[in-house]
């Protein structure tokens, strides 16, 4: 693992050297943003496949509502019928999770790279690189301890928080509109969920409907607790996601609500 981290650190340093004529002291931060964009480009085909899957699942909703009515007293049979429907239509219920799962290794690579004080028995030189006045290995609490919220380091985090808040607000408005555009289930399906064995599921879905538009704001906590380098990855990836989903899900108001808040 140590050898792998050293190789990854060398890659980041090499990209930073190439960007140095343009970004100077912030070249390593620019390299992280470029690395994030490269990861998102690699994952983009999965995002497109996920959008197709969401479109297919949206088309299945009327048939799933019929199955709920048909099997309202037998939740096990209902679950089996829904799985068979997905298999018959060649729709994977997990396809929407794949883009996020494939990004996790890249995030944890940056997190560990800028959390370790040494690499291969040598001091981690990357920790001395900065974005503005803030070290890439530092955290928000360090910025508060060195100059406060409006100090040189604190201002860097304020800018990142502002970007995240703007993206989260954009996602919030889109999600609320998309969920409002969802078709209302037939009365039979609704009563099945409310009165039959599916009542707990109906309650969970109602709670999710209230919480989902706010999920994008959770990124603010991530940015506040991880090393600045990892926070840069999160901010860049979140911004990319907002634009990507606005394009891929523009004609799918029902399916897009879940994807936007994910």
Overall mean pLDDT stands at 80
Uncertain stretches: 184-199, 201-205, 254-262
Count of helical regions: 11
- State the shape: elongated
**H/E order of the elements?**
HHHHEEEEHHHHHHH
Brief descriptors of the model:
73% helix; disordered C terminus; 262 residues; mainly alpha; elongated
Folded structure, characterized:
- With 262 residues, this protein is mostly helical.
- Helix content is 73%, strand content 3%.
- A two-stranded antiparallel ribbon has the order 1-2. The chain has a two-stranded antiparallel sheet with strand order 3-4.
- The C terminus is likely disordered.
Summarize the structure.
The protein is mainly alpha-helical and 262 residues long. It is built from 11 helices and 4 strands; from the N terminus they run H-H-H-H-E-E-E-E-H-H-H-H-H-H-H.
Indicate the topology.
Blueprint: H1 2-23, H2 27-70, H3 75-88, H4 98-113, E1 118-119, E2 122-123, E3 130-131, E4 134-135, H5 140-145, H6 152-180, H7 187-195, H8 199-211, H9 219-225, H10 228-248, H11 253-261
Antiparallel strand pairs: 1-2, 3-4
């Amino acid at each position: 693992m140590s050898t792998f981290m050293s190789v990854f650190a060398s890659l980041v340093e090499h990209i930073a050297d190439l960007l140095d004529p343009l970004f100077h002291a912030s070249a390593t931060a620019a390299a992280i943003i470029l690395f994030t964009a490269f990861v998102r480009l690699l994952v983009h085909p999965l995002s497109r496949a996920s959008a197709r899957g969401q479109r297919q699942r949206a088309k299945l909703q009327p048939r799933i509502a019929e199955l709920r009515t048909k099997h309202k007293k037998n939740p096990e049979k209902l679950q089996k019928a829904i799985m068979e429907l997905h298999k018959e239509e060649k729709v994977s219920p997990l396809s929407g999770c794949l883009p996020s799962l494939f990004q996790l290794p890249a995030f944890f690579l940056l997190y560990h790279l800028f959390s370790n004080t040494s690499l291969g028995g040598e001091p981690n030189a990357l920790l001395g690189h900065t974005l503005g006045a803030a070290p890439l290995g530092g955290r928000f609490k360090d910025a508060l301890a060195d100059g406060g919220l409006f100090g040189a380091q604190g201002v860097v985090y304020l800018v990142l928080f502002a970007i995240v808040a703007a993206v989260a607000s954009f996602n919030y408005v889109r999600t609320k509109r998309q969920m409002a555009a969802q078709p209302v289930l037939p009365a039979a399906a609704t009563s099945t969920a409310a009165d039959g064995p599916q009542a707990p599921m109906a309650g969970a879905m109602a709670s999710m409907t209230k919480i989902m538009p706010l999920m994008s704001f959770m990124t603010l906590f991530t940015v506040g607790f991880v090393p600045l380098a990892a926070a840069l990855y999160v901010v860049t990836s979140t911004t990319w996601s907002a634009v990507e989903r606005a394009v891929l899900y523009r004609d799918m108001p029902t399916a897009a609500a879940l994807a936007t808040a994910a």
